[in-house]
Design a protein that fits this description.
By secondary structure, the protein is mainly beta. It has no helices and eleven strands. Strand 7 and strand 8 form a beta hairpin.
Amino acid sequence: QEHLVESGGGSVQAGDSLTLSCLVSGGTFSSYAMGWFRQAPGKEREFVAAISRSGRTIRYTGSLKGRFTMTRDNSKNTVSLQMNSLKPEDAAVYFCAADSRLVIASSDGADYRPIDFTSWGQGTQVTVYV
């Protein structure tokens, strides 16, 4: 059973950048499609980005494309989410997710849903102040 641990969250000023990381253990990392989701207080968990097993295909939710960048390093069992020009509305708990059957075939398409991923981390808090 894979185990996901997020890190890198914190409190930053609007306009700053922050990079989140997710370390995966207990499985074959290169066999997982990976995703990032976020959840603000009182709101549903929402899709941020997903990356294919090879790292060559990445899908972003439309509103974050261009500001957020997701990458993976299969040699280190990690995925990262670089977040630039952060806004107060980006404040949320950010979750890393994995799935062994999901195929990220295209960078275009609908947002993935939480139900598309089977394994989750505990989340890391991102706070953005003005």
